[in-house]
Design goal:
Helix content is 31%, strand content 25%. Strands 1, 2, 3, 4, 5, 6, 7, 8, 9, 10, 11 and 12 form a twelve-stranded mixed sheet that branches.
């Protein structure tokens, strides 16, 4: 079962899809929920309900008993979401500190072409990342957030790429040369080895050549693809997990992004390895997504 804030739009959708969902008042998140693990999501995407649904759905698919809350950085404002909506469904970071959650997820954001220090909430985000490192057993950073966290903690730069990396890509898991000193990472990767599929949709990348090779918090490369580059990394203790793609994506997300970019007249190619020869969407990453999130959340 998954617990969600009362009246969150995703709750009815998931219930209609057959998932076991219960709605609870937002104020109840300040109290323990016996039998449930707390998972907090910092939702940085402009269209909040879509991202809420993506993460709630993949959490529900794990079959774990989870209480999922969304939160915002203190003082953060939004261009595309009303303040009433945020107050109804989101905790503040100050409120989240009182939990704290067992797992934390920081979503991507369409900020790849902006320097990190120029992001208007960069300092509050850095404060959150430092707090999570001290108080949350494991934090997952997704897409842009993975780049941001690698830059903040390890000074790993992001690099612009000439063409949008867009589609479903095979990635190979790391070998014993990487995992021999990281048993937690080996256990985490075991059900995904030796290869799994991951959606990517981004204009920039991080490169293994920029990773530090020494230090207790040096990130380890856990999965990469010949056509998509580094896709998964983590510290040896899994306190920080970095995913440069989007395992949480719904089946139709890349299709919707493709149609949106076409409508805007942007230079875009059809997502790779996504459509069948008949033009139908093929979800080739679902089982890997469920396995990954179960491993992260359990």
């Amino acid at each position: 079962m998954i617990l969600l804030p009362q009246h969150l739009p995703a709750a009815d959708i998931l219930r209609n899809e057959g998932f076991d969902v219960r709605e609870v008042p937002l104020e109840s998140f300040s109290q323990p929920a016996p039998g449930f693990s707390d998972v907090a999501v910092l939702n940085l995407m402009p269209v909040k309900p879509t991202t809420e649904l993506d993460f709630a759905r993949v959490c529900a698919r794990t079959g774990l008993s989870l209480r999922l809350c969304f939160f915002r950085l203190d003082g953060q404002t939004f261009k595309h979401t009303s303040e009433d909506y945020i107050r109804s469904f989101y905790l503040s970071f100050s409120q989240l500190r009182q939990l704290p959650p067992r797992r934390l997820i920081v979503t991507g954001a369409p900020l790849e072409q902006i320097a990190f220090e120029d992001v208007r909430y960069w300092q509050p985000l850095c404060e959150l990342m430092d707090w999570a490192d001290r108080h949350v057993p494991s934090t997952l950073y997704v897409c842009w957030a993975a780049q941001a966290a690698l830059y903040h903690f390890n000074r790993v730069p992001k690099h612009a790429i000439p063409e949008k990396r867009f589609g479903i890509f095979p990635v190979e898991t790391a070998g014993e040369d990487v995992l021999k000193t990281a048993p937690a990472c080996r256990r985490f990767l075991e059900p995904l080895a030796p290869c799994f599929m991951m959606p990517h949709s981004r204009h920039s990348e991080v490169r293994l050549a920029d990773f530090p090779t020494t230090g207790a918090d040096a990130p380890l490369p856990l999965a990469s693809g010949a056509d998509c580059g580094l896709s998964l990394a983590a510290t040896a203790d899994l306190r920080r997990v970095f995913v440069t793609g989007h395992l949480e994506y719904a089946s139709e997300t890349l299709h919707n992004e493709y149609q949106r970019d076409l409508a805007k007249g942007l230079p875009i190619q059809p997502p790779l390895n996504y459509y069948s020869p008949e033009g139908e969407i093929q979800n080739r990453w679902l089982s890997s997504a469920v396995t990954f999130y179960r491993r992260f959340l359990e």
